[in-house]
Amino acid sequence: MNKFVNRFKFPLAGLVTILKKDKNFLLHLIFAVLVLIVSLILNLNTFEWLWILFAIFSVL
Prior knowledge:
Largest sheet: none
Strand content: under 5%
Structural class: mainly alpha
Distance between the termini: 30 Å
Radius of gyration: 15 Å
Number of strands: 0
Mean pLDDT: 91
Helix content: over 70%
């Protein structure tokens, strides 16, 4: 289990660093979460979900 946790040590450190140094990234994450919440409310189909996820990850 310790090896599994250690695998995420550096990626999480990188995420914390980018959130501290780049406020625009934080803003993009907030809007991405809002879009995902609205998408859940609207009951999108699989094809629409793929486009939403593609757009979010393209921006990030």
